[in-house]
Write a structure and sequence with these properties.
With about 230 residues, this protein is of the alpha/beta class. Helix content is about 35%, strand content about 25%. The chain is built from 9 helices and 13 strands.
């Protein structure tokens, strides 16, 4: 399976709070955010990893080019207007295999839960399996609307009926989703949440996969929370 990391954001909130390194290089215990993801992906059967980083923070690209991995690592340097456009920039890499796993660079989760999640998708016939959590610690969470069997029926900006989970920024998808992505870009849409809404509208079979907790490192105050999660589950 191909794994992809979206790391093209500016990390402006962290920078404004005094963080002196680009977000991908923020350390949680002894690992950078992006290094932790790469290590976990390699241990979960990655055949290739592709990362998009922006042209504003060259330190991230330099860090990635200095890594030695047992699998290919592709680096796309591009500044994009949204995470959906970042995904679009990676589409040619992702279309080479039937299934891929995509994450944002700032997501922290329990490794054992992630392995179970990957195995669940690998053995399913789903078009997509989205990581979700009931833990809400985000300024603008994306709520996930589900049926009783966790089939995703919609995505909401506010907590509405049957929206008991929020998106965790981890997406397992098939290459079928790239058809929807192409149309979203052609229509001038933006933002990952609108792409996800379009997947539902296009009739793709999506399910939610609950994690006990997922933390996005958007602020300096999120760093100790992330470290606590890592210590608790690992």
């Amino acid at each position: 399976m191909i794994y992809a990391i979206l790391a093209a954001g500016e990390g402006s909130r962290l920078a404004q709070e005094g963080c002196e390194v680009p977000k991908p290089l923020v350390r949680i215990q002894d690992e950078t955010l992006i290094g932790r993801l790469i290590r976990i992906f390699v241990s979960n059967g990655a055949t290739r990893i592709v990362v998009i980083t922006n042209a504003l923070h060259t330190a991230t690209e330099e860090y990635l080019r200095g890594l030695t991995l047992p699998i290919p690592l592709d680096i796309v340097v591009r500044t994009t207007p949204s995470s959906m456009h970042s995904l679009y920039a990676l589409r040619d890499y992702l279309a080479t295999e039937e299934r891929f796993c995509l994450t944002t660079v700032d997501t922290i989760f329990a490794e054992a839960e992630f392995t179970n999640y990957i195995n669940a998708f690998a053995t399913s016939s789903l078009d997509g399996l989205m990581a979700v959590t009931t833990y809400v610690d985000d300024e603008k969470p994306l709520y996930v609307q589900t049926a009783d069997d966790l089939t995703i029926t919609g995505f909401c900006d506010t907590h509405e009926e049957r929206c008991n989970h929020v998106s965790g920024g981890i997406y397992c998808l098939t290459s079928q989703s790239l058809i929807t992505l192409e149309r979203c870009i052609a229509e001038g849409q933006s933002r990952m949440r609108n792409f996800q809404r379009q997947l539902v509208a296009d009739g793709l079979k999506l399910k939610a996969y609950p994690f006990s907790k997922i933390i996005d490192v958007d602020h300096c105050a999120d760093i100790p929370k992330a470290e606590e999660l890592v210590e608790q589950f690992e």
